[in-house]
TrEMBL record:
Disordered as annotated region, ranges: 611-656
Residues annotated as transmembrane: 24-44, 50-70, 160-180, 192-210, 231-250, 301-322, 412-433, 467-487
Name this polypeptide is given: DUF304 domain-containing protein
UniProt lineage: Bacteria, Pseudomonadati, Pseudomonadota, Gammaproteobacteria, Alteromonadales
Domain of life: Bacteria
Sequence ranges of Basic and acidic residues compositional bias: 644-656
Coiled coil: none
Keywords: Membrane, Transmembrane, Transmembrane helix
């Protein structure tokens, strides 16, 4: 949304200051940790190159993430620029002066012209849609009023419930897999892969919650996402069939290997000493596996994910329930159908008066009205019938957010917890540098050719312990980052929602028009007259008026208030409808002109004509005397001309 400056402020304030402050603080701390890591590069790279590069890579990553987060937070804290064309129109705006902004927002309008007209005429709202999918219907059954909250909030609630359901289904499927494997239905080979299956479950659940934390975007504000039950059925089928398939594959591999190496093993195993060495090797390998299993446990992380998921669902669904409590899905339209009237005006004069005089007085902060259906007037020249219509919306003005104390506290708690989890994830990554650099330093000093039976197991044991220590810290950081990102993105819409109030007017008028010719000013003694055409229109106006409460979501930076704006509530406005009709009839009746005069104007004209006739009557004797004197002065000239004419006729007769 371009910044179209105007001296009259629209009253839209920055809703992101608290969220931006916490984000900027976290970004500054992250950048500082990255700087501390980079300061160790110069000293470490001289003695241990691998350690120096480790410090450099992690330092650059932390520095970049910290600076990006700091900039993002400062953008939220700084001035919130709002142009004169904000917010987005409900439909395409046909106003001539607003074509630049209309083209920019064309992809983000929520309705078309036909839908706006249908909502006003039919007293219905196309915003609210029937839920699609198992998860959506379950959510709307538990929270019936969630149907009447904006799309982004519906989608976020549906998404987090879907993630919770997918997690429970995944745990159920893993239980089925464990049962199939433990009782031997999948064979005796599949049991050794249970740790792998558990780690796969952990990765899948983490991926589910990572996808659930996607940020708010414009597409999320245009409609409702769908989550079907087919994916759940497919997951259970996979968990039942995969162990059986793996057991068959392992059986084939073990049978091939056993057949291939059976002769070699029989040839080598000839003495007790070799068998003892093999048994010692198997014992050492078993000890290494036990050490690995003891150093890492999937159940701990699955429990942590379950705790975080319950907390996240509680916060997001609690905010959604409080927002749904404020919903008021009213669809009231004032349909004013005045009686048929007869006016002395052309049809286009009627529409022009309503468009340019009546509606122009409804401007808010001098901003032009939104024209969703431009004036379309038609007239049949054969029978004099005409009709026309137009749809306009006044400039939306912000509605103060009526927050309950519980809702505001939950928003603060969710945002604070989100930033805290993200900061903990950063600290865990930074803390993982200590065992990581210890391991890399130890790795730099090892000469593999000098490893023997005494130093080899110690090196392997140290490697496994360091690896699982680092891996444990990174897994914990990943889980904290996933749920911190989820809470940050899912609590953001509850800060960014802005509601507006405006009036939506649909004016229709039809009727007939006839043309008469009238002559004015032609009296008995008048020498001038005025002949003009007089139009008399019989009109049947109709007004559909509603006061709408619409909702949109603010963005950061250049995307301020460019999200689609949806109608949430429609209230009838009888007073506005009466005012519009009264002003229209008054404006038409006061049109100046000889062709359509009211009683007062006719009285003034009659008085003028009577005074003019009286003045003419009083001056009549004087004008007659002047005429007589003119005639007496011209008599001698007339007699001389007559005598000259008689002499000429006599001379002519003598000649003949």
């Amino acid at each position: 949304m371009s910044f179209e400056h105007g001296s009259l402020d629209l009253g839209i304030r920055n809703p992101f200051r608290f969220e931006g402050t916490l984000r900027a603080i976290r970004g500054g701390i992250t950048a500082l940790l990255g700087l501390l890591s980079l300061l160790n590069v110069a000293s470490a790279v001289q003695t241990h190159p691998i350690t120096g590069w480790t410090f450099a890579i992690i330092g650059f990553v932390l520095m970049a993430n910290g600076l990006w987060t700091l900039g993002r937070g400062l953008m939220q804290v700084m001035r919130f620029y709002v142009g004169r064309s904000a917010p987005t129109s409900l439909s395409y705006n046909h106003a001539t002066s607003e074509q630049d902004s209309a083209k920019r927002e064309q992809r983000d309008v929520a309705y078309d012209q036909q839908q706006i007209e249908s909502m006003l005429v039919g007293s219905k709202n196309y915003t609210f849609k029937e839920p699609v999918g198992l998860v959506a219907r379950m959510l709307h059954t538990l929270f019936p009023k969630i149907t009447f909250v904006p799309y982004p909030i519906q989608n976020l609630a549906q998404r987090i419930v879907g993630a919770l359901v997918q997690t429970l289904v995944a745990l159920f499927a893993f239980a089925i897999l464990s049962f199939v494997t433990s009782v031997g239905l999948a064979g005796d080979k599949a049991t050794i892969l249970m740790p792998f299956f558990a780690f796969t479950l952990l990765c899948y659940v983490a991926l589910v919650w990572f996808r659930a934390g996607r940020p708010l975007n414009r597409s999320l504000g245009r409609g409702i996402e769908t989550v079907s039950a087919f994916g759940f059925v497919k997951m259970v089928a996979v968990c039942v069939s995969v162990p059986v398939i793996i057991n068959v594959i392992l059986g084939k591999i073990f049978a091939y290997e056993l057949e291939h190496y059976q002769a070699v093993i029989a040839a080598q195993l000839r003495g007790l000493e070799i068998e003892v060495e093999l048994n010692e090797g198997m014992t050492w390998a078993t000890q290494m596996l036990d050490l690995a299993y003891n150093s890492y446990s999937n159940s701990t992380w699955l429990g942590l994910i379950f705790v975080f998921s319950v907390i996240s669902c509680g916060l997001v669904l609690g905010l959604t329930a409080l927002r749904a409590k404020q919903a008021n899905p009213t669809t009231e339209i004032t349909d004013k159908l005045p009686r048929t009237s007869e006016v002395g005006a052309r049809p286009m004069d009627i529409f022009n008066e309503f468009n340019h005089q009546v509606m122009e007085r409804r401007r808010y902060k001098k901003v032009p009205n939104r024209i969703y259906k431009p004036l379309s007037a038609r007239q049949n020249p054969n029978n004099g019938e005409f009709d026309g219509e137009l749809i306009q919306e006044t400039q939306p003005k912000t509605v103060e957010k009526s927050d309950e104390p519980v809702s505001k506290k939950m928003r603060i708690a969710s945002t604070s917890l989100a930033q805290a989890l993200l900061l903990i994830a950063t600290l865990l990554v930074f803390y993982a540098l200590t065992p990581l650099t210890t391991y890399t330093s130890f790795f730099d000093g090892v000469v593999f050719d000098q490893l023997n039976d005494e130093t080899g197991p110690a090196f392997v044991q140290t490697t496994i312990e360091s690896f699982f220590t680092i891996f444990t810290l990174l897994v914990a950081a990943t889980i904290c980052a996933i749920f911190g990102r989820l809470l940050s993105n899912l609590s953001h819409p509850f800060w960014s929602e802005i509601q507006f109030e405006s009036s939506l007017v649909y004016f229709k008028c039809k009727g007939t028009v006839k043309e008469d010719t009238r002559t004015f000013g032609k009296g008995y003694n008048d020498s001038t007259s005025l002949e003009t055409s007089v139009f008399t229109s019989t009109i049947q106006p109709r007004l559909f008026v509603t006061r709408v409460i619409s909702s949109t979501f603010a963005g950061i930076g250049s995307t301020n208030l460019m999200f689609p704006r949806h109608i949430m509530t429609m209230h009838g406005d009888e007073n506005l409808a009466d005012e519009l009709h009264h002003e229209l009839m008054h404006s038409i009746g006061n049109r100046a002109g000889t062709a359509a005069m009211n009683d007062e104007q006719r009285k003034v004209v009659d008085e003028y004509n009577s005074s003019n006739l009286q003045m003419k009557a009083e001056s009549a004797p004087e004008r007659l005397a002047n005429r007589s004197s003119e005639l007496s002065l011209d008599a001698p000239k007339a007699q001389a001309a007559l005598a000259q004419k008689e002499d000429h006729e006599a001379e002519t007769s003598l000649e003949n």
